[in-house]
Amino acid sequence: MVKVDLSLPGFPKEWNGLRIVQFSDVHLGFHTHLKQVQKLASAIGELQPDVICFTGDMVEREAAPMRDYISVLGSMQAKYGKFAVLGNHDYRGKEQNQVAAMLQEAGFILLCNGHAVLQNGNSRIALVGLDDGLTGNPDPQKAVQGLDDGIWKLLLMHEPDYADFAAPLGFGMQLSGHSHGGQVRFPLLGAMTTPRGSRKYIKGLYHVGQQRMPVYVNRGFGMTQLPIRFLCRPELTVFQLKGMPERTAGSSASLENI
């Protein structure tokens, strides 16, 4: 598990301490088993999240293997709800509608070029989710339609390299997966290969564009292509967010593996 504490400009002080748990790239149907997902759900529960975010690729190709996991996915709970976007593998079997339906059956709010508004007293923030960037049709204008101009927005987008496009659009932060951190890494050399859509942002925290939008790339929970990870462990990420005084430029962060 990786703990990330972030101080963010423009983040409303009423939400200071917001705890977001992110997981990604489960790839059910490819060497991910029920006991592993049960342990994941248990770990998420122990963190007592305010928000759970899933950033795509629930299945490897076919939707059918997901049916056996709906109850354990449904056991994941968060104070303000749990939210998901689709990834490119969720489209591969051309059964993305079934994946979407099962996510919703498990209690996730699917954000496909849409948003959800969270309220804490008189203060509101928004979670915005885009369709997959490789096989879908992301439409950020549609996704934010109807939101107040000044509302702080967290973007969920499967492919991290989309951040170059998203950074000028007023998002306070982007959460992504897709890369698996390379899945196989070597000292000094880093990742041997990463898929299209994660060639630039591969794992961990980045600050993108003139706006220095924070982008976090989760290494993923499952595996794809090869049933192996090397020097690149599966990741569950917990973020604790707070605001930064407006006079301070940029954002500050601390990361801890625990």
Fold and architecture overview:
By secondary structure, the chain is α/β, with parallel strands linked by helices. Helix content is 16%, strand content 29%. It contains 6 helices and 15 strands. A 7-stranded mixed beta sheet has the order 5-4-3-2-14-1-15, covered by helices on one side. Strands 6-7-8-9-13-12 form a 6-stranded mixed beta sheet. A two-stranded antiparallel ribbon has the order 10-11. The mean pLDDT is 94.
Question: What is the tally of helical segments?
Answer: 6
Stretches where pLDDT is under 50 for at least 5 consecutive residues are: none
Series of H and E elements: EEHEHEHHEEEHEHEEEEEEE
Mean pLDDT, all residues:
94
Nearest-angstrom radius of gyration?
17 Å
The main sheet comes to:
7 strands, mixed
How far apart the termini lie comes to 5 Å
State the share of residues found in helices, binned by percent. 10-25%
How many β strands by DSSP?
A: 15
Specify the structural class.
alpha/beta
As laid out across the biggest beta sheet, the strand order is 5-4-3-2-14-1-15
What's the overall geometry?
globular
**Strand content of the residues, in percent?**
25-35%
Topology of helices and strands:
Layout: E1 2-9, E2 18-23, H1 34-47, E3 51-54, H2 70-74, E4 82-84, H3 89-92, H4 96-105, E5 109-110, E6 114-120, E7 123-129, H5 140-144, E8 152-156, H6 163-166, E9 173-176, E10 185-186, E11 190-191, E12 204-208, E13 213-217, E14 237-244, E15 252-257
Parallel strand pairs: 1-14, 2-3, 3-4, 4-5, 7-8, 8-9, 9-13
Antiparallel strand pairs: 1-15, 2-14, 6-7, 10-11, 12-13
List keywords for this structure.
single chain, 258 residues, alpha/beta, 7-stranded mixed β-sheet, 6-stranded mixed β-sheet, 6 helices, 15 strands, 29% strand
